[in-house]
Amino acid sequence: MASRLIANRTGCYSAVPVVKESDLVAFLGGRRSANGAFMEVPPSVAIRQGFWLVFSRQVHKVAMAFLVDRRPTACVHDQQRRLHEIVLDWEGRCLLGRFEDWYFITHEDAEMLHMKRVKYVGQVVAAR
Fold first, then answer.
1. What are phi and psi of 45, to 5 degrees?
2. 3-class secondary-structure state, position 116
3. Could you tell me which of 99, 2, 82 has the C-alpha nearest to residue 121?
4. Which of 13, 27, 38, 93 falls between 20 and 30 A from 2, CA-CA?
5. Residues with Cβ within 8 Å of residue 117, at least 6 apart in sequence
6. Dist. CA 84–CA 89, nearest whole Å
7. What is the dihedral sign for C-alpha 101, 105, 110, 116?
8. How many helices and strands (H and E) does the chain possess?
9. Domains identified in the chain, total number
10. Other CB atoms closer than 10 Å to residue 84's CB: what's the count?
11. How far apart are CA 39 and CA 52, in angstroms?
12. What is the rounded distance in angstroms from the CA atom of residue 31 to the CA atom of residue 19?
């Protein structure tokens, strides 16, 4: 998989794998590579560890694909930008939303989950 990724001079990728929601757990565990599809990273985004996530259901009113940054530093909350984050709950469901205090609030139905009940996957840095 790494041989198909194209890195620029700073070590950031110009294209990253596209991962379906149903394949996310396997992809994160390293058991399965992406489906072979790659999508370009917007020019304004520098990403070293990431992928495009495509949900099997409508989770946003406009966007269908979300560029997820997996770096631990990406989870620093920027109160000005209010970026969405991707988490997995205990049942393995992939959720889009935001952390507020000790809770993760989902984008779809405003469900509140305590932060101990979710696993951080990454921060959304771009969407299409």
1. -110, 130
2. helix
3. 99
4. 93
5. 89, 90, 104
6. 16
7. negative
8. 1, 10
9. 1
10. 18
11. 7
12. 13
Question: E strand or H helix at 103, and its extent?
Answer: strand 103-106
Q: What is the CATH number of the domain that holds 102?
A: 2.10.109
Whole-number Cα distances in Å, 92 to 20, 40, 42, 127? 14, 27, 29, 22
Report CA 38 to chain centroid distance, whole Å: 15
The predicted model gives 81-107 an average pLDDT of 81
Q: Could you tell me which of 4, 5, 11 has the C-alpha nearest to residue 46?
A: 11
pTM here? 0.78
Residue 122 pairs in a beta bridge with 86
Task: Name the DSSP letter for residue 124.
Answer: E
Domain range for 111 is 2-127
DSSP structure string for 51-101 = EEEE-SS--SSS-SEEEEE--GGGGS--TTT---EEEEETT--EEEEEEET
The residue with tokens 């070293």 is 48
pLDDT in tens, 3-57: 455 555 566 668 889 999 888 888 888 866 657 788 988 888 888 888 999 888 8
Q: Is the pLDDT of residue 78 over 70?
A: no
